[in-house]
Amino acid sequence: MTTQLKSSDYDCIDEVPLHRVRGNQLGILISVIAAFITQELWILFLPLAVQLISRTYGVKYNLFVRLLSPLFPKSTVTESRELLRFNQLLAILFLTLALVGYAIGSIVFSSIFLGFLAAAVILALFGYCPGCFMYFQWKQFLARRRTS
Q: Into how many domains does the chain fold?
Protein backbone atom coordinates (compact mmCIF):
# COMPACT_ATOMS: atom_id res chain seq x y z
CA MET A 1 0.00 0.00 0.00
CA THR A 2 1.49 3.33 -1.01
CA THR A 3 0.67 6.64 0.55
CA GLN A 4 0.46 9.64 -1.68
CA LEU A 5 1.83 12.88 -0.31
CA LYS A 6 -0.51 15.84 -0.49
CA SER A 7 1.01 18.94 -2.01
CA SER A 8 0.62 21.92 0.26
CA ASP A 9 -0.03 25.40 -1.03
CA TYR A 10 3.28 26.35 0.60
CA ASP A 11 5.41 23.64 -1.06
CA CYS A 12 8.03 25.33 -3.20
CA ILE A 13 10.54 22.95 -4.71
CA ASP A 14 12.69 25.07 -7.01
CA GLU A 15 10.81 28.34 -7.34
CA VAL A 16 9.06 30.53 -4.77
CA PRO A 17 6.15 32.79 -5.80
CA LEU A 18 6.96 36.48 -5.55
CA HIS A 19 4.10 37.29 -3.14
CA ARG A 20 5.66 34.90 -0.60
CA VAL A 21 9.08 36.48 -1.07
CA ARG A 22 7.56 39.92 -0.51
CA GLY A 23 5.77 38.70 2.62
CA ASN A 24 9.07 37.56 4.09
CA GLN A 25 10.77 40.84 3.15
CA LEU A 26 7.97 42.87 4.71
CA GLY A 27 8.22 40.88 7.94
CA ILE A 28 11.95 41.56 8.16
CA LEU A 29 11.42 45.26 7.43
CA ILE A 30 8.68 45.65 10.04
CA SER A 31 10.92 43.97 12.64
CA VAL A 32 13.90 46.18 11.80
CA ILE A 33 11.79 49.34 11.94
CA ALA A 34 10.24 48.27 15.26
CA ALA A 35 13.69 47.53 16.72
CA PHE A 36 15.09 50.83 15.49
CA ILE A 37 12.17 52.97 16.71
CA THR A 38 11.94 51.34 20.14
CA GLN A 39 15.72 50.85 20.49
CA GLU A 40 14.85 47.36 21.75
CA LEU A 41 17.13 45.34 19.53
CA TRP A 42 16.09 42.05 21.12
CA ILE A 43 13.12 42.34 18.73
CA LEU A 44 15.58 41.20 16.04
CA PHE A 45 15.54 37.72 17.52
CA LEU A 46 12.11 37.26 15.92
CA PRO A 47 13.21 37.70 12.28
CA LEU A 48 16.43 35.81 13.01
CA ALA A 49 14.46 32.86 14.39
CA VAL A 50 11.99 33.01 11.48
CA GLN A 51 14.83 32.99 8.94
CA LEU A 52 16.71 30.16 10.66
CA ILE A 53 13.58 28.01 10.90
CA SER A 54 12.65 28.76 7.30
CA ARG A 55 16.17 28.00 6.10
CA THR A 56 16.17 24.70 7.96
CA TYR A 57 12.62 23.46 7.38
CA GLY A 58 11.41 25.38 4.33
CA VAL A 59 9.14 28.27 3.39
CA LYS A 60 6.02 26.55 4.74
CA TYR A 61 7.35 27.19 8.27
CA ASN A 62 8.13 30.86 7.67
CA LEU A 63 5.87 32.89 9.97
CA PHE A 64 6.27 36.06 7.89
CA VAL A 65 5.21 34.25 4.73
CA ARG A 66 2.18 32.78 6.47
CA LEU A 67 1.06 36.08 7.97
CA LEU A 68 2.10 38.71 5.42
CA SER A 69 2.07 37.13 1.95
CA PRO A 70 -1.76 37.32 1.81
CA LEU A 71 -1.35 41.13 1.82
CA PHE A 72 0.21 40.92 -1.64
CA PRO A 73 -1.66 39.88 -4.79
CA LYS A 74 -1.00 36.27 -5.78
CA SER A 75 1.83 36.17 -8.26
CA THR A 76 2.73 33.71 -10.97
CA VAL A 77 6.18 35.30 -11.11
CA THR A 78 8.69 33.26 -9.13
CA GLU A 79 12.20 33.58 -7.81
CA SER A 80 14.85 30.90 -7.70
CA ARG A 81 15.04 29.02 -4.43
CA GLU A 82 18.85 28.94 -4.66
CA LEU A 83 19.00 32.71 -4.99
CA LEU A 84 16.55 33.20 -2.14
CA ARG A 85 18.62 30.96 0.10
CA PHE A 86 21.66 33.16 -0.60
CA ASN A 87 19.65 36.29 0.22
CA GLN A 88 18.33 34.63 3.34
CA LEU A 89 21.88 33.83 4.40
CA LEU A 90 22.76 37.51 4.02
CA ALA A 91 19.76 38.49 6.15
CA ILE A 92 20.81 35.99 8.82
CA LEU A 93 24.35 37.38 8.73
CA PHE A 94 23.20 41.00 9.05
CA LEU A 95 20.75 40.17 11.86
CA THR A 96 23.39 38.18 13.73
CA LEU A 97 26.00 40.93 13.41
CA ALA A 98 23.48 43.55 14.55
CA LEU A 99 22.65 41.45 17.61
CA VAL A 100 26.35 40.85 18.35
CA GLY A 101 26.93 44.60 18.13
CA TYR A 102 24.05 45.17 20.53
CA ALA A 103 25.38 42.48 22.91
CA ILE A 104 28.85 44.05 23.08
CA GLY A 105 27.34 47.48 23.59
CA SER A 106 28.21 48.96 20.20
CA ILE A 107 25.06 50.61 18.96
CA VAL A 108 27.00 52.10 16.02
CA PHE A 109 28.13 48.62 14.85
CA SER A 110 24.61 47.30 15.31
CA SER A 111 23.04 50.25 13.48
CA ILE A 112 25.38 49.84 10.50
CA PHE A 113 24.28 46.26 9.91
CA LEU A 114 20.64 47.12 10.55
CA GLY A 115 21.01 49.88 7.98
CA PHE A 116 22.48 47.46 5.44
CA LEU A 117 19.64 45.03 6.02
CA ALA A 118 16.93 47.71 5.89
CA ALA A 119 18.37 49.18 2.68
CA ALA A 120 18.59 45.76 1.03
CA VAL A 121 15.02 44.86 2.01
CA ILE A 122 13.58 48.21 0.89
CA LEU A 123 15.37 47.97 -2.45
CA ALA A 124 14.16 44.38 -2.86
CA LEU A 125 10.57 45.39 -2.12
CA PHE A 126 10.87 47.99 -4.89
CA GLY A 127 12.22 45.44 -7.36
CA TYR A 128 16.02 45.75 -7.17
CA CYS A 129 17.72 42.92 -5.33
CA PRO A 130 21.21 43.79 -4.05
CA GLY A 131 21.65 40.21 -2.82
CA CYS A 132 20.90 38.94 -6.34
CA PHE A 133 23.58 41.25 -7.72
CA MET A 134 26.07 40.00 -5.12
CA TYR A 135 25.13 36.40 -5.92
CA PHE A 136 25.69 36.99 -9.64
CA GLN A 137 29.09 38.57 -8.95
CA TRP A 138 30.03 35.66 -6.69
CA LYS A 139 29.10 33.13 -9.39
CA GLN A 140 31.09 35.12 -11.97
CA PHE A 141 34.11 35.16 -9.65
CA LEU A 142 33.91 31.39 -9.17
CA ALA A 143 33.55 30.78 -12.90
CA ARG A 144 36.58 32.95 -13.70
CA ARG A 145 38.58 31.21 -11.00
CA ARG A 146 37.75 27.80 -12.44
CA THR A 147 38.79 28.74 -15.97
CA SER A 148 42.13 30.27 -14.98
A: 1
113 occurs within a structural domain: yes
Range of the domain at 92: 15-147
The alpha carbon of residue 101 and the mean position of all alpha carbons in its chain are separated, in whole angstroms, by 20
Question: Does residue 124 sit within a domain?
Answer: yes
Class of residue 92 by CB neighbours under 10 A (exposed 0-12, middle 13-18, buried 19+): middle
Residue 2 lies inside a defined structural domain of this protein: no
Q: In terms of DSSP H, where are the helices of the chain? A: 18-38, 45-57, 63-68, 81-103, 107-125, 130-147
User: Does the pTM exceed 0.85?
Assistant: yes
Per-residue pLDDT tens for 32-88?
999 989 989 899 999 999 999 999 999 999 999 999 999 999 999 999 999 999 999
| 50 neighbors 64 (Cβ within 8 angstroms) | yes
Q: What are 42-55's pLDDT values in tens digits?
A: 999 999 999 999 99
